[in-house]
Write a structure and sequence with these properties.
7 strands, alpha+beta, about 35% helix, globular, 7-stranded mixed sheet
Length: about 160
């Protein structure tokens, strides 16, 4: 698959894309719980108060994320960091109500297209406890490039397969 051919400028469903604002923090916390609780619990354990405190402490960094809104409800969020040697997809969270609709694939493909335009590889990490996400990334063109005790480190090179 050519990374430059991967970008589809239209979302698979009719939704609004915009930057996150401080007013979105509570809704994004709920999205985080919906999307990540199972995997975080399996990896580290989950205590609501601890996880919420960590989420809110990291809010200044997360404020740079993009979000998708469907009929007034935030249904996806992601954060991309453009670094010197790569583009890093920090996280992708898609509400359970919108998973398997093509939204996650579109987010990742847009990230790959932006990286390809800059002639850079795209990197991400995925929790080992989340095999569905790993399979999605592999299907789109990522390969495992390393691992930690809890995560796979994945890369999609530019140009692809070189």
């Amino acid at each position: 698959m050519q990374l430059t051919d991967a970008w589809d400028p239209v979302w698979p469903i009719e939704i609004e894309e915009r930057a996150a604002t401080d007013a979105d923090c509570d809704a994004l916390w709920r999205l985080h719980v919906d999307t990540m609780r199972t995997y975080v619990a399996a990896t580290y354990g989950w205590v609501d108060s601890v996880q919420e405190s960590m989420f809110r402490e990291n809010w200044p960094k997360r404020r740079a994320q993009r979000i998708l809104v469907d009929q007034g409800t935030i249904v996806a969020a992601w954060l991309v960091e453009r670094r010197v040697d790569d583009v890093f997809l920090t996280f992708v969270e898609v509400a359970s109500s919108h998973q398997r609709s093509g939204v996650g694939t579109a987010i990742v493909r847009r990230t790959l297209a932006a990286a390809a335009a800059s002639r850079l590889p795209t990197r991400l990490t995925v929790m080992k406890a989340n095999p569905d996400a790993r399979r999605l990334y592999e299907r789109i063109g990522f390969c495992i490039d390393g691992e930690t005790p809890t995560h796979y480190i994945m890369v999609a090179s530019y140009p692809p397969n070189e």
